[in-house]
């Protein structure tokens, strides 16, 4: 499977910058996946969870509160207001889960989108 570059940027700087197989994003019109050579697009991101399938087949989940994504054929860039890693290396999971829930609940999004994102965060917590 071909790889693409994924970059997630917050006001505090770059929090993820690596080659990935796929990324699933919480778009304003619903969740969508991006693979290498995806058509170019720009989309708003809602409060939710970004799920990253890394090159080594491990999975990383990052809760975000809002932002936007720019997809090109070779690179996907997410600019987000706030982000908390839910899974992956060097993560204190219990603390990250609580921070993710607080981040999502503070987002200015519809209550349905927030409830869906919080549910996804809780599912990730149960599966690890």
Q: What structural category do the secondary elements indicate? A: alpha+beta
- The percentage of residues in β strands lies in over 45%
Kindly state the number of beta strands.
Answer: 9
Task: Figure out the total of helices.
Answer: 2
Which architecture per CATH?
A: Sandwich
Distance between the termini: 26 Å
Give the domain tally.
1
Dominant shape:
globular
CA radius of gyration: 13 Å
Explain this structure:
With 128 residues, this protein is of the alpha+beta class. 24% of the residues lie in helices and 47% in strands. It is built from two helices and nine strands. α1 packs antiparallel against α2.
Question: Can I get a quick summary?
Answer:
The protein is α+β, with helices and mostly antiparallel strands and 128 residues long.
Features:
ATPsynth_dsu/esu_N; ATP_synth_F1_dsu/esu; membrane; transport; ATP Synthase, domain 1; cell membrane; single chain; 128 residues
